[in-house]
């Protein structure tokens, strides 16, 4: 329900032909329409958000912090707010000030009253996590350069309290490469059903090519286990999207 409370601008970022392709950036233009973009581009996004909020509520502990790393426009924090105890402080971090500005305006519009803070920082350059019972990475790790991902997960693990959880949602590659083409086509069919044109799909794919680098589900789980997470479970899966919850001993 929280996805429908606020007004969303329509995503037309790639509607017109772009003569000179460039890498995708979370710019002011993207921030304005990001909520529409992600709702029309990520299958079961609303249900995924509800599941993350449910998982967070079950593990958030009084006296600790809940982190949303790559918080974008704040949708995940808004969702968690409906289920997590109001005394627990939320910390949202993103490397795009434009996205954080949109996040702040949404939280104010919704009368967000719990203690929270927003920080502009690049996860790949090191972000301190401390006294955390829940850390969320929703469609975020895939945008961190692979060379930095292990350090990001180590920082999260070190900052989680015992029994704390990491909730990770990622776009993924198929375990068997021969399924990748089919899954990608099913995904583009999903975007077509949500009224994206062939040009929009093509231009966004080109813009994301060097920016979004997905791993296999098994590779993500291996990364988590290598960093010390004792229990990893898949809670969501749709073709080339997956959600994992990982617990620190």
Write the layout of secondary structure elements.
Blueprint: H1 28-41, H2 45-59, E1 65-69, H3 75-81, E2 89-94, H4 97-109, E3 116-120, E4 132-138, H5 146-159, E5 160-173, H6 180-193, H7 198-208, E6 215-216, H8 217-226, E7 231-238, E8 241-247
Helix pairs in contact: 2-3
Task: State the end-to-end distance.
Answer: 34 Å
Major β-sheet, in short?
A: 8 strands, mixed
CATH topology: Rossmann fold
Oligomer: single chain
Descriptive account of the structure:
It is a single chain. The protein is α/β, with parallel strands linked by helices and 249 residues long. The chain has one domain (26-176, 206-247): Vaccinia Virus protein VP39 (Rossmann fold, 3-Layer(aba) Sandwich). Helices cover 39% and strands 22% of the residues. The protein is built from eight helices and eight strands. Strands 1, 2, 3, 4, 5, 6, 7 and 8 form an eight-stranded mixed sheet that branches. Helix 2 crosses helix 3 (75-81).
């Amino acid at each position: 329900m929280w996805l429908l409370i606020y007004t969303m601008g329509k995503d037309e970022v790639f509607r017109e032909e772009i003569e000179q392709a460039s890498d995708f950036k979370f710019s002011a233009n993207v921030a304005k329409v990001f909520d529409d973009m992600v709702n029309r581009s990520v299958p079961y996004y609303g249900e995924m958000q509800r599941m993350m909020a449910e998982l967070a509520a079950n593990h958030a502990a009084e006296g600790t912090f809940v982190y949303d790393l790559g918080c974008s426009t704040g949708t995940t924090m808004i969702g968690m707010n409906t289920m997590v105890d109001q005394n627990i402080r939320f910390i949202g971090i993103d490397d795009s000030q434009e996205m954080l500005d949109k996040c702040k305006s949404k939280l104010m519009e919704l009368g967000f009253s719990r203690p929270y803070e927003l920080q502009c920082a690049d996860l790949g350059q090191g972000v301190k996590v401390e006294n955390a019972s829940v850390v969320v990475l929703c469609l975020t790790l895939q945008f961190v350069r692979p060379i930095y991902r292990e350090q990001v997960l180590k920082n999260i693990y070190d900052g989680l309290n015992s029994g704390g959880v990491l909730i990770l949602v990622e776009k993924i590659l198929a375990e068997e490469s021969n399924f990748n083409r089919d899954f990608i086509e099913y995904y583009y069919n999903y975007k077509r059903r949500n009224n994206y044109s062939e040009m929009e799909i093509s231009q966004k794919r080109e813009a994301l090519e060097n920016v979004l680098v997905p791993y296999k589900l098994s590779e993500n789980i291996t990364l988590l286990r290598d960093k010390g997470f004792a229990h990893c479970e898949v809670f969501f899966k749709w073709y080339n999207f997956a959600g994992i919850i990982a617990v620190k001993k």
